[in-house]
Amino acid sequence: MIVIVGLGNPGRQYEGTRHNVGFEVIDLLSSRNQIPVNKIKFKALVGEGFIGNQKVLLVKPQTYMNLSGQSLLEIMNFYKLDSQQIIVVYDDIDIETGKLRIRAKGSAGTHNGMRSIIYEIQTDDFPRVRIGIGKPRFGDLADYVLGRLVKEERELVSIALRDAAEAVEVFVKQDIQTAMNQYNK
């Protein structure tokens, strides 16, 4: 099984924010692959199904971003998974708005959700799909990532969300190298 985790914050007030693009990719994967994400388990909303012939678990942690690792650790322990069986999808301020970066492993950078995951599962050796949300020109970083996308950003990010969902599907059906070659631009 492959566990696909989209990072975000639960609650209506966070819908459509820059920090919730990971949740939006899970929603797209859910829709595209007819996998309802409606069970509450492992401190997360989850849905089990298939992408191609591969069994997957779609996950939206409900712990709030900064504690995302707690949910993932429970899942990994329950299913006895290693870190190569997870894919984490999340926003990244260090990437230009609307761009994707797929990596086999790496540091958390400035992302608190990723810091939590790396701390809890004790490795940074797992695949990830990062969606660029850009940096604020001025003002508070927390206000920026928790802010809603403006119209021009929404257009770019909508394309990136679709590409991220497709990249995850390519990764699951084929391998990470193929996904990286097709979607890292």
UniProtKB/TrEMBL annotation:
Reaction(s) catalysed (UniProt annotation): an N-acyl-L-alpha-aminoacyl-tRNA + H2O = an N-acyl-L-amino acid + a tRNA + H(+)
Function: Catalyzes the release of premature peptidyl moieties from peptidyl-tRNA molecules trapped in stalled 50S ribosomal subunits, and thus maintains levels of free tRNAs and 50S ribosomes.
Site, Discriminates between blocked and unblocked aminoacyl-tRNA: residue positions: N9
UniProt-listed Enzyme Commission number(s): 3.1.1.29
Origin species: Geosporobacter subterraneus DSM 17957
Catalytic residue list: H19
Assembly and binders: Monomer.
UniProt keyword list: Cytoplasm, Hydrolase, RNA-binding, tRNA-binding
Site note Stabilizes the basic form of H active site to accept a proton, residues: D91
Positions of tRNA binding: Y14, Y64, N66, N112
PROSITE patterns with a match to the protein in the record: PEPT_TRNA_HYDROL_1 (PS01195), PEPT_TRNA_HYDROL_2 (PS01196)
Family from the record: Belongs to the PTH family.
Major localization listed first in the record, in broad terms: cytoplasm
HAMAP family: Pept_tRNA_hydro_bact
Protein name (database record): Peptidyl-tRNA hydrolase
Subcellular localization(s) per the UniProt record: Cytoplasm
Organism placement in taxonomy: Bacteria, Bacillati, Bacillota, Clostridia, Peptostreptococcales
Taxonomic superkingdom: Bacteria
Gene Ontology cellular component list: cytoplasm
GO molecular function (one): tRNA binding
Keyword Membrane: no
Swiss-Prot/TrEMBL GO biological process terms: protein quality control for misfolded or incompletely synthesized proteins; rescue of stalled ribosome
Gene label: pth
